[in-house]
Amino acid sequence: MAQPSTVRVGRNDAKTVWRKSSYSSHNGDCVELAELGDVVGVRDSKDRQGPVVSVNRRTMATFVAALTGGHLAAGRR
């Protein structure tokens, strides 16, 4: 069975430009995204030297659409 996407875990590169959502609260509980070529990197804004998870752009677009569409509400199973 084919996998829908590849998820990789790596480390930060000092040259990478990270962005936080304008909807983020200022308490530090959020993630940051970076464009990393063909993939999007995701990291914890509180642990900037920690691991980076990267997913392909299509997977990220699907995930964001599900979030903004209310299909992945917090605390929902």
Polypeptide structure, described:
The protein is an alpha+beta fold. The protein has a domain at 32-72. It is 16% helix and 31% strand. It has one helix at 57-68; strands at 8-11, 19-20, 31-36, 39-44, 51-56. Strand 3 (31-36) and strand 4 form a beta hairpin. The longest helix has 12 residues, at 57-68.
Structural class by SSE content: alpha+beta
**SSE ordering:** EEEEEH
Q: Mean of residue pLDDT?
A: 78
Tally of separate helices? 1
Radius of gyration based on Cα positions? 13 Å
Q: How does the overall form come out from the CA principal axes?
A: globular
Q: What strand order characterises the main sheet?
A: 1-5-4-3-2
Task: Estimate percent helicity.
Answer: 10-25%
Pick out its properties.
globular; five-stranded antiparallel sheet; 77 residues; alpha+beta
